[in-house]
């Protein structure tokens, strides 16, 4: 539904001061945004003509924070929409049910490059182009190659199978992901540490 048809002011509920304080206790006050001017960025992606404001935009830094926010949101049945860097062209990160936009932009570290097994462990907010450059320094190659290379996140390239402009047909991010760390409202037993992606040595053809 188009934002203009929704009549935003009529549906706005807000989260309440108590809940906002609990979110701030998890991520820090400056990483919980509620005023419209600051949330404008989180109300749209690159899809033309759609805009939905959340009740709050929350910028997490660790997987533990993600879990805590999800647990809190689950407790109050608040919708949560994950957001990478908002370059999507199909509205995937739009908070159409309001609630919380969970932004991954602060989770921007490449954690480990395992040259022997051609695996990399990253946080989801790493810019795809940064991952390219980081592994290239070690003579490796991460094939997914979207035109938005320097503005989209590694986490945002996988959920809908995006992330390529067709040059390396068989190596879309989703097919290259060996594991994601799932963060759930409830504790799960020993998930993998983070998301892994298979890499290729630069000398290997992606289709071989
Ligand atoms: C100029 C331009 C060029 C583009 N070129 C291409 C191209 O060549 N090929 C292509 O396929 N696409 C392309 N796109 C679309 C877009 O860049 C890709 O879809 C990109 O993968 C989105 O990444 P993002 O970080 O911006 O994700 P977002 O738009 O923020 O999110 C995309 C989806 O991923 C979900 N998500 C994000 N992070 C997580 C997470 N950590 N866990 C779970 N779900 C998450 C969101 O909820 C949403 O559903 C282009 C876009 C632009 C503006």
Distance between the termini: 44 Å
Q: How many DSSP-defined strands?
A: 10
Task: Assign the structural class, choosing from mainly alpha, mainly beta, alpha/beta, alpha+beta, or little secondary structure.
Answer: alpha+beta
Q: How many distinct helices?
A: 8
Summarize the helices and strands and which ones pair or pack.
Elements: H1 3-6, H2 8-11, H3 17-27, E1 32-33, H4 36-39, E2 56-59, H5 63-75, E3 80-83, E4 100-103, E5 110-114, E6 119-122, H6 128-136, E7 140-141, H7 154-157, H8 173-176, E8 177-179, E9 195-198, E10 200-201
Parallel strand pairs: 2-4, 3-4
Antiparallel strand pairs: 1-2, 5-6, 6-9, 7-10, 8-9
Gist of the model:
Helices cover 25% and strands 16% of the residues. The protein has 8 helices and 10 strands.
Which tags fit this structure?
single chain; alpha+beta; Uridine Diphospho-n-acetylenolpyruvylglucosamine Reductase, domain 2; 4-stranded antiparallel β-sheet; 8 helices; 10 strands; globular; disordered N terminus; binds flavin-adenine dinucleotide
């Amino acid at each position: 539904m188009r934002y203009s048809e929704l009549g935003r002011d009529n549906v706005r509920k807000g989260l309440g001061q108590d809940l906002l304080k609990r979110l701030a206790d998890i991520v820090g006050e400056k990483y919980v945004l509620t005023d419209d001017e600051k949330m404008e960025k989180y109300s749209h992606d690159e899809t033309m003509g759609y805009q939905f404001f959340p009740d709050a935009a929350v910028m997490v830094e660790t997987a533990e924070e993600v879990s805590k926010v999800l647990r809190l949101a689950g407790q109050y049945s608040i919708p949560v929409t994950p957001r990478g860097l908002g370059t999507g062209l199909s509205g995937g990160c739009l908070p159409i049910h309001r609630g919380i936009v969970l932004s991954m932009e602060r989770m921007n570290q490449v954690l480990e490059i395992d040259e022997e097994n051609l695996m990399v462990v990253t946080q989801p907010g790493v810019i795809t182009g940064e991952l390219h450059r980081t592994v290239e320094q070690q003579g490796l190659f991460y094939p997914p190659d979207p035109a938005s290379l320097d503005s989209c996140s590694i986490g945002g390239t996988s959920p809908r199978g995006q992330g390529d402009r067709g040059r390396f047909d068989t190596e879309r991010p989703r097919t290259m992901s060996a594991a994601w760390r799932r963060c759930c409202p409830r504790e799960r037993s020993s998930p993998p540490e983070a998301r892994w992606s298979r890499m290729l040595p630069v000398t290997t053809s992606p289709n071989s």
